[in-house]
């Protein structure tokens, strides 16, 4: 059966129109094409502007001149006391970047158990010695009646929405943060310094303690300069009775391809009420752990990273077998593993590091503190569980 329908191409349909109509149609198509291009350009510029805001401003000329004579600063960048080797292969970089988008194959198969929190979960008066781990390196400490927050990141760990997503939502939304006496930032990587959280906290009268150069990021995001305290390694200050000392770390910094190591990275020591806490944040193993333990130890609590290690960057993060060694060098009593359970940053299963560290701790009788995210831990008598095991996760 022959069809009465015939196929007419767009060109034929246009050519069959009267000349005036054809000109009008072409003008309309041209206008729509220009409009679409303009819309795409606006979207692209808006996205670029958003990314640039989240990157923040690196140190300016005045800051760089202030750093010139420091022993750990040379030719515009900060230096490690021991070299930090990186062995990236060019062909692996595009693949590594692509894997940061979407759900990771290393993510947990089911939701992780957490303790949901609101600001009402916290007592009006902070206690003498406790901690809540909110995931990764974000901790809420209570020490000698003061409350402070470390490396507050509540969203994804990248300037682009959707890149480096979380395995699990934070148990405490940033909007529910309790009153804080100060906030501590270890360095400017996206999994430790979050634009949205700094912009939220700038509205509060809370001081920030940061490494050298990171103050430029905060000032660019609207935090008043008088509320920012910048420290170099071995420098100290006292805020509300808590002594804060910046200590050596073996790591790197930067929020773009062009600002690597223009700001400093640090560990911290907190002292108050007769207690000492070491907060390691990020950093590979080195002789500095022994030196810190000899001069400032022993520590009632060490908070050491256990995740994101990789043979391609052997000195930037602690391998599981190095975590216990660093804890012993520091002369620590309790060990709180941090920098795990939230992001896939180094291509290993989410629970591989904690399993290895827990196994080694049991062999060496190191006392681990392993709370669920959001769980309140009284560090004078800590009680936690191996919640990451398959049985505990299912429950």
CATH class descriptor name of the largest domain:
Alpha Beta
Q: Percent of residues in helical segments?
A: 25-40%
Largest sheet: 7 strands, mixed
The DSSP helix count reads 10
Shape assignment: globular
Name the poorly predicted regions.
1-13
Radius of gyration: 26 Å
Order of helices and strands: HHHEEHEEEEHEHEEEEEHEHEHEEH
Widest sheet: strand ordering = 8-7-6-5-4-3-16
**Proper CATH architecture of the largest domain:** 4-Layer Sandwich
Q: How many independent structural domains?
A: 2
Strand content: 15-25%
- Given helix and strand content, the structural type is alpha/beta
- C-alpha end-to-end distance: 66 Å
Examine the coordinates and then state which fold CATH places here, giving the name of the CATH topology of the largest domain. Answer: Metallo-beta-lactamase, Chain A
| Total beta-strand segments | 16
Say which CATH homologous superfamily of the largest domain is assigned: Ribonuclease Z/Hydroxyacylglutathione hydrolase-like
Mean pLDDT: 90
List the helices and strands and how they pair.
Layout: H1 10-15, H2 19-55, H3 61-67, E1 73-74, E2 77-78, H4 92-98, E3 129-133, E4 139-143, E5 146-150, E6 182-184, H5 195-201, E7 208-211, H6 214-220, E8 228-231, E9 236-239, E10 242-247, E11 267-272, E12 275-279, H7 288-296, E13 299-305, H8 320-329, E14 332-338, H9 352-364, E15 367-368, E16 376-378, H10 390-394
Parallel strand pairs: 5-6, 6-7, 7-8, 12-13, 13-14, 14-15
Antiparallel strand pairs: 1-2, 3-4, 3-16, 4-5, 9-10, 10-11, 11-12
């Amino acid at each position: 059966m022959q069809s009465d329908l015939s196929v007419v191409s767009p060109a034929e349909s246009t050519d069959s129109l009267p000349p005036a109509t054809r000109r009008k149609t072409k003008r309309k198509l041209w206008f729509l094409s220009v409009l679409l291009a303009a819309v795409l350009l606006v979207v692209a510029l808006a996205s670029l502007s958003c990314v640039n805001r989240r990157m923040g401003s690196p140190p300016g000329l005045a800051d760089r001149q202030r750093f010139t004579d420091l022993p750990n600063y040379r030719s515009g960048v900060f230096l490690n006391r021991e070299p930090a080797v990186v062995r990236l292969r060019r062909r692996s970089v595009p693949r590594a970047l692509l894997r940061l988008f979407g759900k990771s194959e290393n993510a947990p198969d089911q939701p992780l158990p957490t303790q949901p929190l609101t600001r009402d979960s916290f007592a009006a008066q902070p206690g003498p010695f406790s901690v809540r781990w909110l995931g990764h390196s974000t901790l809420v400490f209570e020490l000698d009646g003061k409350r402070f927050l470390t490396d507050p990141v509540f969203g994804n760990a990248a300037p682009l929405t959707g890149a480096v997503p979380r395995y699990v939502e934070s148990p405490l939304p940033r909007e529910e943060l309790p009153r804080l006496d100060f906030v501590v930032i270890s360095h400017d990587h996206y999994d430790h310094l979050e634009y949205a959280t700094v912009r939220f906290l700038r509205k509060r009268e809370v001081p920030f303690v940061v490494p050298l150069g990171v103050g430029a990021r905060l000032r660019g995001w609207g935090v008043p300069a008088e509320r920012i305290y910048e420290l170099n390694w071995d420098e100290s200050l006292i805020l509300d009775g808590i002594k804060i000392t910046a200590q050596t770390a073996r790591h790197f910094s930067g929020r773009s391809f062009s600002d690597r190591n223009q700001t400093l990275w640090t560990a911290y020591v907190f002292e108050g009420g007769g207690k000492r806490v070491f907060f390691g944040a990020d950093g590979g193993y080195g002789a500095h752990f022994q030196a810190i333990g000899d001069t400032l130890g022993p520590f009632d609590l060490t908070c050491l990273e256990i995740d994101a290690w990789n043979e391609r960057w052997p000195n930037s993060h602690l391998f599981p077998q190095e975590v216990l060694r660093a804890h012993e060098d520091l002369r620590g009593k309790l060990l709180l593993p941090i920098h795990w359970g939230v992001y896939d940053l180094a291509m290993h299963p989410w629970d591989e590091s904690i399993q290895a560290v827990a196994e080694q701790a049991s062999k060496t009788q190191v006392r681990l503190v392993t709370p669920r995210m959001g769980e309140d831990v009284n560090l004078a008598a800590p009680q936690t569980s191996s919640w990451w095991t398959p049985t505990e996760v299912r429950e």
